[in-house]
C-alpha cells in the first residue's frame, strides 16, 4: 500500500523533506503505523518530535483533508498531512 505523507511548518525541516512516499506492507494499517514507518526511516530524533513519552502526539494530523487520530485507518493512495502546531499565535 502506497501512502503520501506531507510535512508543513518546522516539521519539514526536522524531517528533512517536504514529502515522503511510503510503501506499507498489508492492508489493515492506521495512521500510527504510518508514523512508525516514518520513525523507522528517519530515526529517534523524529520520534521525540512526533510522539510524546506519555503517548500523546506533538503534531496535527490531517488525512485526506480531515483532521484525524492515530487510530484512523489508511488506504492505498491516501494523503497524510503532518503539521507542527504554532505556539503563541
The figure for the number of domains is 1
Strands ordered across the widest β-sheet: 2-1-7-4-5
Low-confidence stretches: none
Rounded radius of gyration (Å)? 12 Å
Instruction: Compute the number of strand runs.
Output: 7
CATH superfamily, called what? Beta-grasp domain
- The secondary-structure class comes to alpha+beta
Number of distinct helices = 3
Mean pLDDT: 90
CATH architecture: Roll
Folded structure, characterized:
This is MoaD/ThiS family protein. InterPro entries: Beta-grasp_dom_sf, Mopterin_synth/thiamin_S_b. This protein has 89 residues and is of the alpha+beta class. It has one domain: Ubiquitin-like (UB roll) (Roll), CATH 3.10.20. The strands form two sheets. The chain has a five-stranded mixed sheet. A two-stranded antiparallel sheet has the order 3-6. The longest helix has 12 residues. The protein is globular and about 35 Å long.
What is the element layout, followed by pairings?
Layout: E1 2-8, H1 10-15, E2 19-23, E3 29-30, H2 31-42, H3 44-50, E4 60-63, E5 66-67, E6 73-74, E7 79-83
Parallel strand pairs: 1-7
Antiparallel strand pairs: 1-2, 3-6, 4-5, 4-7
Brief summary of the model shown:
With 89 residues, the chain is an alpha+beta fold. The chain has helices at 10-15, 31-42, 44-50; strands at residues 2-8, 19-23, 29-30, 60-63, 66-67, 73-74, 79-83. The chain has one domain: Beta-grasp domain (Ubiquitin-like (UB roll), Roll), CATH 3.10.20.30.
How would you describe this structure in keywords?
five-stranded mixed sheet, alpha+beta, two-stranded antiparallel sheet, 3 helices, Ubiquitin-like (UB roll), 89 residues, 7 strands, 30% strand
